[in-house]
Design the sequence.
């Protein structure tokens, strides 16, 4: 008899975005004339810029001629893209990452979800609270979570991110083995300073733990003193993997391309305590269960590193950052404490009340959709997330409506 | 301390294609003038056809304009493609599959590799011999293989595919829970008759086992009496998942699109023996660890189902099938027993000798590359695989050289 992976039975249904969608539908049905503005989901809204579209088309054209057709490519990605990333994202900031340490994939969600496969099911896992749910659910599926009780998985270690610590948790006093960090953070928009990251790298080195560093929003960083990469911290290569994505950087949420960096020095240990190269393990996993990213998509991604593509992409991020600044400053002027909005497309607003009630109020009175913080974990209660991914006129209209309701 | 998934230590290095590449490089280095013809790897060589290229471009254009831009799509794939598949691949053959039972992905390799996650690590797994290595390696990583000894993983059940059973194994007398089948087969090219598939479905129903049916080469079937889908067998929906791909059907090995069908009736059981819907579990896995296929790629795939795209794609497959027929008939005329080559792009040749020695002879004397059968498992010894994926003039030249050496 074929038996299920029983750990799936421990998963909790993810009601957050389906509940939001249901509430919007119900409100729209009872108010057919209402023009609802969505600042909820973290999805980009602006088109791929011209030089990326041109490279994408060129890749498609190559696939349409026998003499330039490409079949299976390297599972790890084409050299032209891995080299562009190593040079453009790392060497340009003084970090020495080799192309062979860069693994191209179809999404940071996939990579952050799959990476835990490489580790023992007994690994002690630390996740942020509030949290991107993929970190938690994939560890539940693998059997590392323990049962759910009192609003928590009993075997996970939650890194509480609250106004008390500026939404950047310090390393725990307990021993953990696998640590998920995300900066600029989703959902809070908080960024980590060099000192804060140094504390985490130091903890990981001391305990031979591994940091899975999600830098999907790194392109939104504008302040010079905030690290873009965990590898800007000395010693991080031995204890950290970094996930990045073209989704929010270049509008690839529907085009699909991302990458993961696993330095050669990065170590994991077997039962005998021997050190193994994590890069070799991920390479084995990646080549066995993945078959590479679409060739024209890799050509499109590589265009991000050309002078023109880079300028276009920066222009789009600047646009979203201006939205974010407008949102943050308006919410602050209305008396709400905020984090994020600078160096991040998300604004995490301290509402001080039940976050679903605040969501309902903005929906019904202002016809503006946000995301209730409680949906991201217990520490999200008393907060909402507002996303800067929308067109300027809609953001301004949403803010005027919010001012009328809350002002 | 971060500890490795110890099962990775049980993986055997995959030397097959790297050893072939090394032998080719060495021969070329010592014979710089030699013009080597490759009939080894199963990768397509002909360009994407015009109507698929046009749909691909159109999708890219949509991504380049704000008003038609697409961000995150449904993880399971867009309705337009799921509906085209349900109608074009299933209802057209009298099989009632709903669009909601079709999950779009970026590759059958990924899906056949990932699917085993849904099951208990104690599941007894049956794999063909010779075998597509992904079935084996992903179960090794998950801890279902047991140790390697005497040329076999001790906890896997091997379905021997030999000339004695026409390379189509019958169900075992032992009880197994998870069964990997692939028809038309890679590497043998053998196809399964309706009666043979009925025996497997009957076994699975009796034992409440699950069949993972890999139909990646289904488009090469031309004989009317050979089923294209496991669901053409009554009762299969309750016990079988089907994997298909656009890779070999439409030349998508470098473009990346595939799909998996999980019927609503398909069942799996928990420890208490209760029946669960496998579709719901795969949906949870797919939405948690995957973020959908690139939108322009899905548009390109949908063009396969238009009258023009369908005609173009059939023309390309006919071209490869003519290559396959030429290869099979030449090898038979030289006195070698063959399977495949009809209804399949692969020809599995009984060489009767050490398959690496035969590979070496073809490389050094005819400058033709094949794949030694021993690389696919013990039952592959005494065979080579020849692939029909190449240009006609090269295939003909390769056959003339082979005739001179072996004739």
Sequence:
């Amino acid at each position: 008899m074929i038996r299920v992976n029983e750990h799936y039975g421990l998963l909790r249904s993810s009601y957050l975005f389906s509940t939001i969608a249901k509430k919007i539908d119900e409100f729209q049905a009872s108010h057919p004339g209402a023009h609802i503005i969505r600042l909820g989901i973290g999805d980009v809204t602006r088109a791929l810029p011209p030089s990326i579209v041109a490279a994408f088309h060129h890749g498609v054209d190559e696939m349409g001629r026998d003499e330039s057709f490409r079949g299976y490519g390297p599972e790890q990605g084409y050299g032209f893209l891995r080299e562009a990333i190593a040079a453009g994202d790392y060497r340009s900031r003084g970090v020495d990452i080799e192309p062979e340490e860069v693994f191209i994939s179809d999404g940071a969600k996939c990579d952050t979800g799959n990476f835990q496969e490489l580790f023992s099911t007994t690994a002690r896992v630390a996740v942020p609270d509030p949290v991107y749910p993929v970190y938690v659910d994939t560890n539940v599926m693998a059997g590392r979570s323990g049962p759910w009780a009192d609003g928590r998985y009993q075997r996970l270690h939650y890194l509480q991110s609250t106004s008390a610590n500026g939404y950047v948790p310090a390393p725990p006093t307990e021993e953990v083995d696998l640590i998920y960090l995300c900066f600029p953070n989703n959902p809070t928009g908080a960024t980590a300073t060099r000192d804060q990251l140094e504390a985490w790298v130091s903890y990981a080195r001391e305990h031979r733990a591994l940091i899975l560093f999600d830098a999907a929003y790194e392109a939104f960083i504008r302040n010079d003193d905030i690290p873009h990469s965990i590898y800007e911290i000395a010693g991080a290569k031995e204890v950290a993997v970094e996930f990045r994505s073209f989704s929010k950087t270049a509008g690839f949420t529907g085009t699909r391309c991302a990458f993961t960096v696993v330095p050669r020095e990065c170590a994991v240990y077997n039962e005998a305590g021997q050190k193994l190269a994590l890069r070799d393990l991920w390479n084995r996993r990646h080549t066995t269960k993945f078959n590479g990213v679409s060739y024209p998509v890799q050509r499109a991604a590589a265009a991000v590193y050309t002078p023109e593509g880079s300028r276009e992409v920066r222009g789009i991020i600047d646009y979203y950052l201006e939205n974010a600044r407008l949102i943050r400053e308006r919410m602050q002027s209305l008396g709400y404490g905020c984090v994020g909005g600078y160096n991040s497309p998300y604004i995490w607003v301290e509402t001080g009340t039940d976050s679903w009630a605040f969501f309902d109020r903005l929906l019904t009175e202002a016809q503006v959709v946000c995301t209730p913080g409680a949906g991201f974990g217990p520490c999200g209660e008393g907060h909402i997330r507002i996303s800067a991914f929308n067109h300027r006129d809609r953001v301004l209209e949403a803010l005027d409506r919010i001012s009328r309701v809350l002002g």
Notes: The mean pLDDT of chain B is 97.
